[in-house]
Amino acid sequence: MKAETWRALEEEFARFPILRGGAVEDTEIDAAVASLGIDLPGDYREFIRRFGAALLGPYPIFGLRPVEPMGSMWSVVEVNRHFRRDKWPGIDDWLIVSMDQAGNPIGISGDGRVWISDHGHVTTLAPTFEDFIWSEAMKFAR
What we know:
By secondary structure, the protein is an alpha+beta fold. The chain has helices at 3-15, 26-36, 42-51, 76-85, 129-137; strands at 54-56, 59-61, 95-99, 105-108, 114-118, 121-126. It is globular. It starts with a helix and ends in a 5-residue tail after the last helix.
């Protein structure tokens, strides 16, 4: 991600620290990757390393640290298991990183694009995780 994006995220979490989890060591991220069997895109991996998980605007960004306002649904590992167990349509090659307010999964595909599966209707939300953060989650920060 660009320095501008990291700076905007840091400023947001400085104002509202309850909206982020906490830093995660690379060894814990590596264990999550092994558990999921899916590699984490670079920007998302760095987001998890810095913030653990977060709530950005209306969107949870799942990760490896609890975030109080997200309740019990914050773990990227558990969320991915949940949607795969339920055989949610269209998500087979995604890493589920978020969810909309209706409970539809938002994931990153192997080519880096961010998608939403609305009960079988699959739509691209953004070309990258960074674009998703700006276009969807942090509209208010610009």
